[in-house]
Amino acid sequence: MAGARRGPNEAGHEGGAGLGSSGARSEHSEAARERLATNPFYVLGLRPDCTRAEVERQGQKLIGMLELELSAALRYRSPLGEHPRSPQLVRAAMAELRDPNRRLLHELWASLDPDAGPDASPDSGPDAPTDEAGPPSELRPFPALAALGFGDWRRR
After folding, report:
1. What's the pTM value of the predicted model, to 2 decimals?
2. What is the pLDDT of residues 86-136, one digit of tens each?
3. Percent of the chain whose pLDDT exceeds 90
4. DSSP states of 49-98 as a string?
5. Is 131 in a helix, a strand, or coil?
6. Contact at 8 Å (CB) between 75 and 122?
7. Which backbone phi and psi does 30 adopt, to 5 degrees?
8. Closest to 35 in 3D by CA, of 87, 102, 106
9. Strand, coil or helix: what is 12?
10. Which of 27, 62, 29 is closest to 43 using CA atoms?
């Protein structure tokens, strides 16, 4: 019976390992896209060098505009395209930027210009071919990480 129990687990583990590696990579990639798309600076429409007072002012302004359902506040741009904005998302963005350690992390990720992103709708696939030249790199969309010395981790 021990062999019977071990058999399905091993088979499940072997099958899961093959699917897990590509599935984990896909989940990791999707999570990174989600973090970039919901970066508090993009949600609030602010640059990383803004003051805390500007964060609070812009957040309150957006919440008021969203309550009035003004079209200018309903969507925001990130390097990945346009996304819907909600009062909950604005409040969460404000809370993230109040913590200095969390803000620093978001400043690194917000180094990309939101208007330099694709013109495609948010429903279009992020795996669409681009006109960028050069070898693929995990850090290509995040130059701030390369500037901090985080090179291609596969070479280590």
Report:
1. 0.59
2. 999 999 999 999 999 999 888 887 876 666 655 544 444 444 444 444 444
3. 40
4. T--HHHHHHHHHHHHHHHHTT-GGGSEEEETTEEEE--HHHHHHHHHHHH
5. coil
6. no
7. -65, -40
8. 106
9. helix
10. 62
* Region for residue 69 given its phi and psi (left: phi exceeds 0; alpha: psi -120 to 50; beta: otherwise): left
- Rounded Cα distance, 62 and 56, in Å: 10
pLDDT digits (tens, 9 = 90+) for 133-151: 444 444 455 555 555 555 5
Residue reference for tokens 């681009």: 130
| Structure tokens, 144 | 């701030």
Residue in the structure block whose two tokens are 């995040």: 142
Q: Tokens 């969203």 identify what position?
A: 66
